[in-house]
Amino acid sequence: MLFCQSMNACLLLIIPISYLRGFLSIEVVLAVAFLTGCCSIFYQISYSSYLPEIVPSQSLLNGNAKLEVTNGAAQVAGPGIGGYIIQLLTAPIAVFLDAVSFIISFILTLFLPESRVKKRDPSNRQSVWKDIGEGIAFTFQHQILRPILISYSLSVLFIGLYQSISVIYMTRSLNFSASDIGVILGLGNAGFLVGALISRKLAEKLGVGRVIVGSLGLLAVGFLIIGSVPNNQYTLYLLLLGQFLLSMGVPIYNVNLVSLRQAITPGHLLGRVNSVSKVFGRGLVPVGAVIGGILATTIEVRYAVIAAGIGGILSILPALFSEVINMKTID
Q1: In terms of CB atoms within 10 Å, which end of the chain has fewer, N or C?
Q2: Residues contacting 242, CB < 8 A, separation 6+
Q3: Which tens digits make up the pLDDT trace of 98-154?
Q4: What is the arithmetic mean of pLDDT over 48-76?
Q5: What is the topology of this protein in the membrane according to its UniProt annotation (predicted)?
């Protein structure tokens, strides 16, 4: 975690330094974006594997919910604050402040307790490929984690499809301007915050398994609403509703799934199992984006958005018809 925070700070500082020195280019920006993205993945896997060491299992839902509330607040407020800083102080200064935020995060992380997971003896360390194999084997042999991962991976495929064509759909099919789309995303993304706030209560009332499956369904329902809106005076409100629902589904899923995975996975395997979820899930986003691009050029974009919703509904079937749906708590 400390390494990733320090690397992100150093990488982001390249942008304002390059700007001041006069050699800032799109290639530099792309390289920084790629490398900071890599650091973010390592950081996310690390902190989700670290949380069970400082939070007892019965408090994992509460702990992950608080993390998602913070993330939801950032999703809602971050773009607006960033845009204001860019307009007021220019983009390089905004990136510099972003780098400073990682330095602050690095300092705060120094005060966290040291990891209790024992470090391996370097002489007994196995290859990284064997580590990866252990994570894959544990996940796909587990009667709970396997169907969830299959449903999640399929859902992510259609999330990637939707993301690649959503702006095209709103501009070409619905004739919305860039500012209109900004309003839809800004207000609709309040669902992140609401979902994070209610995720734990939903699990207590409905059961963790049903909430995990239902939250994936919320994303699909959001796609269907957005793809089915009529082009009239209610269009904006229905788009806001669809964006709100799919945004709300994300933190509800994250809080409950991550808490469940942390509770049922042995500590020494948790990092590997978390990485498997990232690869098999998020790795399908670009595949879905390519499919979305192909669909958008062969059929009406509206139908491609609806296809993302139908595909999202079908994606939940592996988890729905498994032991996952019967899980009440993460204990």
Answers
A1: C
A2: 188, 221, 222, 223, 224, 225, 226, 229
A3: 999 999 999 999 988 876 555 555 555 667 788 888 888 988 899 999 999 999 999
A4: 79
A5: Multi-pass membrane protein
d(CA 269, CA 134): 8
- Cβ pair 152, 281 in contact under 8 A: yes
Tokens coding 222: 């959001």
Q: Where in the chain is the domain with CATH 1.20.1250.20?
A: 131-326
Q: How far is CA 107 from CA 42, 78, 112, in A?
A: 18, 21, 10
Give the position of tokens 């299992």: 57
Q: What span, in angstroms and rounded, lies between the C-alpha atoms of 120 and 126?
A: 10
Give tens-digit pLDDT for 191-248: 888 988 898 899 889 999 999 999 999 999 999 999 999 888 888 899 999 999 999 9
Amino acid at the residue 309:
G
Q: Torsion angle of alpha carbons 61, 159, 317, 190, nearest 10°?
A: 40
Number of residues written out for the chain: 331
* Spatial contact of 11 and 91, defined as CB atoms under 8 Å apart: no
CA separation, residue 84 to residues 90, 94, 100, 135 (Å): 9, 9, 17, 43
Q: Residue 331 has which token pair?
A: 């204990």
